[in-house]
Amino acid sequence: MTDKELMRLFDSMDIQERVDQMVQINVQFYESGEFSTGPAAGFGIEPEDARQAGTILNVIGAERTRHVQDLHMAGQKHRVPLMFMADIIHGYRTVFPIPLGQGAAFDPEAAEEAASIAASEAYASGLTVTFAPMADLARDARWGRCLESCGEDPYLNSLMAAAMVRGFQGANAGAPGKIAACVKHFAGYGAAEGGRDYAAVELSPRTLEEDYLPAYRAAVDAGSELVMCGFPTVDRVPCTGSRYLLTETLRNRWGFKGLVISDWASIDEMIAHGFAEDHRDAAHKAALAGVDIDMGTGSYSNNLASLAREDPAVARWIDEACLRVLRLKNKMDLFENPYRGADPEAEKRLHLCPAHRAKARELARKSFVLLENRDGILPLRKSSRVAHIGPYVDEKTVCGGWAVFNDDSDNVTVRQALEARSGVTSTVCLRGSYITDGYDLTLGQIAKPNITFSFDGARAQKLLDEAEAAAREAETVVLYLGEHPVFSGEGGSSSQIMLPECQLELLRRVRAVNENIVTVLFTGRPMDLRRVRELSKAVLCVWYPGTESGNAVLDVLYGDAEPGGRLSMSFPYTAGQSPLSYRELRTGRAPKELPDRFTSRYLDVPIGPMYPFGYGLTYTSFKYSAPTLSAPTLTEQTPITVSVTVENTGTRPGTELVQLYIGDNFASVARPGRELKGFTHVFLQPKEKKTVRFTIREDMLRFFDIDMRFKSEPGAFTAYVGANSATRNAVKFDLA
Ligand code: NOJ
Q: Which sign does the torsion angle of CA 55, 58, 62, 63 carry?
């Protein structure tokens, strides 16, 4: 419809109808197939208002969305269609690796393609908006939601967030096959204190700006139609009530024109934060801060219209927000086409089609990080006698959190992949142990409702005995170990980041009879791998690989593909080192090589991470030359280049991820020791050499100075070019 028609529609709506557009109800209202007023009670919303709500969460599927749209339209005086939203984070029916794994692929183009495939599948199922990308920076392995993040680095996260927005939306989110993106959780959610989900965030303004905000900003600049605000308080103000974040930063400074949606019930949670007196006050504060849509509570529905009578600012806000919702609906073509893409035939054609599966398999392989490979035990020879053992051999739940619309039965297990693989001989496949130490976990709704892990001690012994016998006979044992996905994700924080004892026991028992162990690790977070490293010759971190899990894992284990990933988060030795980032500020008491008590370190673990950000091995080896500069000094007008020559010194072809870090040697404020500023993949045949060049521009050296101005300062810098964030391959340069 034209904007004029849209304005006519808007003018015909009364104030409560306008507020209704600012309300999001959820799937429960339609669970019976009809509109049901039952959930309205828990929601604290009048049934007739809930029926009018402008957007809905988690109703998806072509038949369902068409049906619900029909029911909705039947009760719509102005024929304003419902807008369908859901969490399509790393795939819809075809699931790609978790975002932490996608970050490890260091391949924004591949992430864009994955998001584009997810959009096409979700579009066919009637979806209009996805709550992704999640651009929260994650530095704390204890935080369960690090799996939804692309990791600890602002530069990598920014590239990934922008790529995902482009993938979901294309050039126009309203075009066929595209959906609108909603970057979240604005802002700083990843810095939850102690890694405990929903806990307060305490960040200095400089750290917030320099480290945490860039990825959201990149998504906004890439055109994300929506922004979701976070649950926590940042500097003691809930994000949902933060005028500083939602209006001054997002809209005024960054020029964001789209919709801001609360997180689930986060408007009401401001009461629990002690920031709002009651629901009415919470609604008032959220509206004044800049929240357009109330997800999951009745606070807007019940209070905004009457608040508008007392406060003209609220009245203005209602009009602005309602218009924004109507405009997005119009952009997404819902007025002309209320079913939008919902098409059962397209669902059949697209969902899990071979082309999508092939892309999921490819991205999974690119995300796997080879952490250890002693004695060149990997890749496996197809003819060798390998025992494949572990709870993940038959595990179908391999997509990790927020693969809400994945059906386990579509996922390929290791056993299935082995059976389908030609040329692999003499293999045995055994479970070896339970996946957890055995207790009932009734908190696991994110992965499966009320999941129960049974544990029978006698059976556990039998599994171990069988594993030991098989390991004795094998040349090599591949152990498939890991956390069950319910132990990470939302509400999945953990004070320990160890494998369950039953799995460690399996590792010990196998090691007692066979030292050729390859551990394949399924995880949604960095883990404490001290035991695993000690007892295994190779360790391959595969995150939660998604639908094509088993196939992708075997592709890499048998050398049909390289392990393509590099760590997107540092792996600490132990949870006690969290949070951890290579970008941490330098201390006056830097740890020294020689033992010195009075340095900034823990006495009981080595200095730094066990595996640093950017780290990962390949099946070959590379040698770097010392970096050289095109000129020793750059100016604002004249960039310089830094070059290295990389040589494949091994016997197999391989791809190296060459990384550029820059450190500001001294400045008006303390700066991180180094920051990632560029990376590139280089494919080299054995003995082949290539020169890799990075441009260094003045704008890459900017930061928030002592007066909070974003600018560079002349002086000395160091460029590091190497294989990971701990590289010492460095050269100094100056900014004039
Ligand atoms: C709560 C989560 O924090 C958010 O990421 C998600 O998009 C919403 N629930 C909706 O499911």
A: negative
Answer yes or no: is 614 within a domain.
no
Determine whether the shortest distance from the Cβ of 395 to ligand 1 is under 6 A.
no
Average pLDDT, the chain: 95
CATH number of the domain residue 697 falls in: 2.60.40.10
**pTM above the 0.85 mark?**
yes
CATH label of the domain that carries residue 430: 3.40.50.1700
Q: Confirm or reject: Cβ of 145 under 6 Å from ligand 1.
A: no
Catalytic residue among 49, 107, 263, 292: 263
- Domain hosting 684: range is 620-735
Model confidence pLDDT, tens digit, residues 160-176? 999 999 999 999 999 99
Q: Give the CA dihedral 304, 309, 313, 314, nearest 10 degrees.
A: 10
| Distance in Å, CA 316 to ligand 1 centroid | 28
- CA dist., res. 429 & res. 449, Å (int): 29
Based on the domain organization, do 655 and 564 belong to the same domain? no
Say yes or no: CB of residue 279 within 6 Å of ligand 1.
no
Could you tell me the end-to-end alpha-carbon distance of the chain, in angstroms, rounded to an integer? 55
Residue 655 phi/psi, 5-degree rounding, is -115, 125
Last residue of a domain, one of 577, 602, 634: 577
Q: Determine the atom of ligand 1 nearest the C-alpha atom of 58.
A: 11
* Position 39 confidence tier, pLDDT thresholds 50, 70, 90: confident
pLDDT in tens, 5-15: 999 999 999 99
C-beta of 490 in contact with ligand 1 (< 6 A): yes
Does residue 379 lie in a domain region?
yes
> By the 8 A CB rule, do 221 and 257 touch?
no
Ligand 1 atom showing the smallest separation from residue 185 Cα:
5
Q: What is the mean pLDDT of residues 182-186?
A: 98
pLDDT at 424: 86
Residue 424 resides in a domain = yes
Contact (CB, 8 A) for 717 and 665: yes
Among protein residues, the one whose CA lies closest to atom 10 of ligand 1: 264
Task: Verify whether residue 263 is a known catalytic residue.
Answer: yes
